[in-house]
Amino acid sequence: MKRKRDLDTGTSSSTGEGRESLGAEYEVFLNFRGPDTRLNFTDFLYHFLDGAGIRVFIDDEEIRKGEKIAGELLRAINGSRIYVPIFSRDYASSAWCLRELAHMVECSRRSTDKVILPIFFDVDPQDVKLRTGLYVDALKRHKDRFGSDEVQQWKGALTEVAAIKGWHCKDRCQGELIKLITDEVLRKLPRGVQIVPDHLVGIDVHVRAVMNLLGADSLDVRFVVIHGMGGIGKTTLAKVVFNRIASLFEGCSFLSDVAEFSQQGKIVKLQNRLLSDILKCKSIKVHDTDSGINMIRGRCGHKKVLIVLDNLNKRDQLVKLAEKCNWFGQGSRIMVTTRDISFLKISKNNASLHPKVCHFYKMEEMRHSEAIQLFSRYAFESDAPPREYDRVTREIVEITGGLPLALVVIGSSLYYESKEVWDDVSAKLKKMPPKEVQDILQRFRERSCSQGKHRTSRRAY
Q1: Of 27, 100, 250, 370, which residue is the catalytic one?
Q2: Active-site residue flag, 100
Q3: φ/ψ (deg, to 5) at 419
Q4: Domains of the chain
């Protein structure tokens, strides 16, 4: 468990930047009175959440010093997305619990992304709403030490949180309850959100088309293949769609650069990643592709899942990750991105992928007006070029053929450059055959991804 003493002596950085980022490490903040639940319910809940891959901050108010929330504790509360106060009989006797609760309520008021999920361990909501003497008497004892203003703030926080629908532990099995809480936390958290470019131009029409093919309301298991030439934006499209519909599924996994992993003999690593994402368990390990296949179809067959297999180039990669519909539960969707669909060999006689369950979407080049707009956003930080750059901009856009990757790479490289440099780049591009231009851009993209140092770190479409 990561308590304050662990952070002070082990993980905190000596630099300001390191310390400021600590709060972002956590997704859930557990608020509880240690002597009441630390060695039983709270400990079980922490380990169940942690086992599901959720980053949890668990605090121990007994080692607190002073009367202000500060340092790592403040950053953990501010950075967490979900707050779980565990109300026990002596909860209100702890000023630290009340102080944390008041700050959590304040944070949730300021942000629509933050959620409070209360647990009534061995008390009733009526106790927390201050309609009985249990918490009222404890608050009276705090008044002399902390003053009426702060105690009044604690009262407001208690009554506000008590009105939120939570869980009652009385007459319930703790194991069953903890599983329900974990499932709800997982539903509230945005799992596996994919980072997309800052500047998206003309993608909405593609998103609508793919969403149509996915048919979100249908209970069948469906494959959607997004195909087109390199650099045309297939991965970006898959990411945007993934982010939009991920919350509708029990488990989601986005596997990037499948072809590259396959080439390096790391398909087993992708199988482990897929299972870990879908089952929300970090401890799963498969050691060979056959056992990986068996576990995927055995453990995912009852789950409605969303899987993206990005950049496939061989059928064997699909076979080892998501070959058949019956590997997954009703309503599952598998998106594939690839440059060439010939390796899929879809036919009525193919037992793996029947044409009725496999839908194709071909991405075409951008329209000229959209290409100008995308290029200008990276080259000039505007939707159109300045008048003196209009001619050379149109020349470069024409040469690149409306490929988003090419527009972003070249536009970023010309940002803040002189007119002479622009003319020189345009002249060189005119002399290159289209295939050679694409090869250069592909090598540039691979180098940028590995080094992360080029200007296109502004996130290229």
Answers
A1: 100
A2: yes
A3: -60, -35
A4: 4-188 (3.40.50.10140), 204-362 (3.40.50.300), 368-458 (no CATH)
